[in-house]
Design a protein that fits this description.
The complex is a heterodimer of chains A (about 220) and B (about 375). Helix content of chain A is about 80%, strand content about 0%. Chain A is mainly α. Chain A has a single domain, classed as MetI-like fold. In chain A, helix 5 packs across helix 7. Helix content of chain B is about 20%, strand content about 35%. Chain B contains 8 helices and 21 strands. In chain B, helix 3 packs antiparallel against helix 4 and helix 4 packs parallel to helix 5. Chain B has about 375 residues and is an alpha+beta fold. Chain B starts with 5 loop residues before the first strand and ends in a 12-residue tail after the last strand. The chains are: A mainly alpha (about 220), B alpha+beta (about 375). Chains A and B meet through helix 6 and helix 7 of A and strand 7 of B.
Chain lengths: ~220, ~375
């Protein structure tokens, strides 16, 4: 029983670390992309939009395989191309990378909506009052979009929490190192330990429920 | 007063037509008058740098904001214009005070003067969402003034308010004109406001300037029977509820005293359809204003009425315009050069504002 509890704790720690760092990576990238898509007009914008949306519909295993090919010794981001061994595959960092990529479209799309809800004329007014673009972004755009941006980060974390397909391919399912909740549930089912699987599912449902409930509250306050 | 010659030349394609104008003026306050959809707001947005014209040159004093030939296009933050859009556009996440201090170079004395002129000190702690329409406009005007602009752009600041509220805001705009020496472009489709606030007006229709000049003369020709004459004077006496004004161009007028004090400057409006024309001086009549005048023009209007233009005194005083029926005009034999009397009631006059005799602003009644 003690073993089972410390195992669960390990799983939770790995999950928090992987999903947390993945969300921290995906949030700035997704927010920047969301802002670009909401405000900028440029050639090839629809191509970027499609590319950003792609991970939403691709099977995560396909993403995992592409990532594996990229990070392999002779891949574009492998030892031979970089001149050193990035040593990512089958570490928690690979799990982070996979989760971040899968979470990115969700963050970008939610952030985009949040930015689109900010009246661009308020940004122009800030410029007229003497604010540079950067200051306008920091003082006007982000504060006005903050609820939507928090929701974007939370959804990114949530998506990373549930990541399975890409992670298992690039990071495996190593207990205490790369085994997150999603991977642990799969393993317990494989091993036939339904009680353990059920316990982990219960924890996952609780976390996801709390997260979505918060996001829901954020968006309700926003639309008021 | 510093001279700030205003040069507006631009071509700007809009949805249905092209905004194309070319005008230069030394007027401190230029009115842009026209129906909605005439391109008035687009002109202000081009000046603020929110829209880029196809070509042209925009200059305030010696500062070139935009010049397509010289490839000058200052970003909005370097234009130094104060813009008060129709919907005020206050930052919803900041208090009134933070909104007022939003400009980057806030001068303490100027800030205090703005609070006093617009009477917005009691609003400082409020959130924009809790302000009434009139309060919101005053705060937006204050925010623009505090930023010490070289040009003030007012986009129908009164349009979103009902008639009663507009009449309460107008005095503040007049005070701002007295208190702050800022060249102003005032966009409006209200002829009375333009007359009260502007030295010069350009009438915009379908993206082009169709008339330009002194507001009273230009707007008289633009409006039909709903034209209001705007006259200015100084309070000579007060009795009962009446103030007797000595008009700037000679003559006396009786208007409701409101909060006017002796010696105060006052502006009032009198509708052209509120003025009677008598060919002989009427005796024992209740109307307090019976002013001798000489007819300078008789113009038939498209709506069937006739516009009588007259100047007070022997024809050298203030110009007024009265709207009569064609039958009355013909029966009285009204024609240019004829000496007549213009008759109107004290209570038909609407006092727009007042400023103190020494140029400072009176605490006028803002009911």
């Amino acid at each position: 029983m003690i073993g089972a509890e410390s195992h669960t704790l390990d799983v939770l720690l790995v999950t928090a670390r992987v999903a947390g760092v993945a969300a921290l990576l995906a949030a700035p990238a997704g927010i920047a992309l969301g802002f670009l898509l909401a405000r900028a007009e440029f050639r090839g914008k629809s191509a970027i939009e499609t590319l950003v949306a792609l991970p939403l519909v691709l099977p995560p295993t396909a993403i995992g395989y592409l990532l594996l090919a990229l990070l392999a010794r002779d891949g574009w981001l492998g030892e031979r191309a970089l001149g050193f061994d990035p040593d990512l595959l089958f570490t928690w960092k690979a799990a982070v990378l996979a989760s971040a990529i899968v979470a990115l479209p969700l963050v970008a799309r939610t952030a985009r909506t949040a930015f689109e809800e900010v009246d661009p004329r308020l940004e122009r007014m800030a410029r007229t009052l003497g604010y540079s673009r950067a200051r306008t972004f920091a003082r006007v755009t982000v504060p006005l979009a903050r609820r939507g941006l928090c929701a974007a980060g939370a959804l990114g974390f949530g998506r990373a929490l549930g990541e399975f397909g890409a992670t298992v391919i690039v990071a495996g399912s190593i207990p205490g190192r790369t085994q997150t909740l999603a991977l642990a549930i799969f393993e317990e089912i494989q091993l036939g330990d339904h009680a353990a699987a059920l316990r982990l599912v219960g924890i996952t449902v609780a976390i996801a429920f709390a997260l979505l409930w918060w996001v829901e509250r954020l968006s309700r306050r926003r639309s008021r | 007063m510093s001279t700030a010659r205003l040069e507006l030349a631009l071509r700007l394609p809009l949805h249905a037509f092209e905004l194309a104008l070319e005008l230069a003026t030394d007027a401190r306050s230029l009115g842009i008058f026209g129906p909605s959809g005439a391109g008035k707001t687009s002109l202000l947005e081009a000046l603020a740098g929110w829209r880029r014209p196809a070509s042209g040159r925009l200059r305030v004093g010696d500062c070139v904001l935009y010049d397509s030939t010289a490839r000058v296009d200052l970003p909005p933050e370097r234009r130094g214009v104060g813009y008060v859009p129709q919907d005020a556009l206050l930052f919803p996440h900041w208090s009134v005070e933070r909104n007022l201090r939003a400009g980057l170079r806030v001068d303490a004395a100027r800030y205090q003067r703005t609070l006093a002129t617009l009477e917005i000190a009691p609003l400082l702690g409020r959130a924009p969402a809790t302000l009434s329409g009139g309060e919101r406009q005053r705060v937006a005007l204050g925010r623009a003034l505090v930023s010490a602009p070289r040009l003030l752009l007012l986009d129908e600041p009164l349009a979103s308010l009902d008639l009663e509220l507009r009449r309460r805001i107008l005095p503040y705009l007049l005070r701002v004109r007295e208190e702050f020496d800022v060249p102003t472009i005032f966009v409006s489709h209200d002829a009375t406001e333009v007359q009260a606030l502007c030295e010069e007006v350009a009438v915009l229709r379908g993206g082009r300037v169709v008339a330009r000049g002194a507001p009273a003369e230009v707007l008289r020709a633009q409006r039909g029977s709903d034209f209001e004459n705007v006259l200015a004077g100084r309070v000579r006496e007060l009795h009962g509820g009446t103030a007797v004004l000595e008009l700037d161009q000679g003559g006396l007028a009786h208007v409701p005293a409101g909060g006017l004090g002796r010696g105060a400057r006052a502006l009032f409006a009198i509708g052209s359809d509120e003025i009677l024309v008598a060919v002989e001086r009427p005796e024992r009549i209740s109307a307090r204003n019976v002013l001798a005048a000489r007819i300078t023009g008789v113009e038939p209007e498209p709506d069937g009425s006739v516009r009588i233009e007259a100047r007070l005194g022997a024809g050298d005083g203030a110009a007024l315009c009265a709207s009569l029926t064609r039958v009355a005009t013909e029966e009285l034999g009204l024609r240019p050069g004829l000496e007549v009397h213009l008759v109107f009631k004290t209570n038909a006059c609407r006092v727009l504002s007042a400023a103190g005799s020494d140029g400072t602003v009176d605490r006028i009644a803002l009911r």
